[in-house]
Amino acid sequence: MRQRIDFSNYKYEKEIHEKSISSPSTDIIPPTIDITDDIYKLTINIIVHNHPDKISFTIEEVAKYIHKSKEFVRRRIKSGLIQATYFGDGPMVHISELARLLTKGIK
């Protein structure tokens, strides 16, 4: 079974963006979507392609993806910089959080 992520609600009005750049007006609100949203979508698609049946990842898998140690990831989860869901004693990181880490990083 392949996992599908639906981006049909993802809307980007190119005309509004072009109008807001060419003629700044108070009645036109520039879109809040930027290039990082496209990178985020691409990152999720790559993760889903590589792991079609996975939704959440272990500390070891996250550490491998971001090229850091397991202890680094564990400390960031404890401090709240990485969101995780606990199943028993083991924290699991959701695919959307992994994509956020890969696109925006950890401060």
Radius of gyration: 18 Å
**How would you sum up the global shape?**
globular
Helix share bin? 40-55%
User: How much of the residues is beta strand, in percent?
Assistant: 5-15%
Report the CATH C-level class of the domain at 34-104: Mainly Alpha
Number of strands: 3
Q: What are the low-pLDDT stretches, counting only 5+ consecutive residues below 50?
A: 12-17
How does CATH name the architecture of the domain at 34-104?
A: Orthogonal Bundle
Going by helix content, strand content and strand pairing, the class is mainly alpha
Order of adjacent strands in the largest pleated sheet: 1-3-2
Describe the biggest sheet? 3 strands, antiparallel
CATH topology category name of the domain at 34-104:
Arc Repressor Mutant, subunit A
Average pLDDT works out at: 79
Helix count equals 5
- H/E series: HHEHHEEH
Ends apart, CA distance between termini? 36 Å
Relevant terms:
107 residues, mainly alpha, Arc Repressor Mutant, subunit A, three-stranded antiparallel beta sheet, 5 helices
Overview of the molecule:
The structure is a single chain. This protein has a domain at 34-104: Arc Repressor Mutant, subunit A. It is built from 5 helices and 3 strands; from the N terminus they run ααβααββα. It has helices at residues 14-22, 35-50, 59-66, 70-79, 95-104; strands at residues 56-57, 85-87, 90-94. A 3-stranded antiparallel β-sheet has the order 1-3-2. Strand 2 (85-87) and strand 3 form a beta hairpin. Helix 2 crosses helix 5 (95-104). The radius of gyration is 18 Å and the shape is globular. Mean pLDDT is 79; it is low at 12-17.
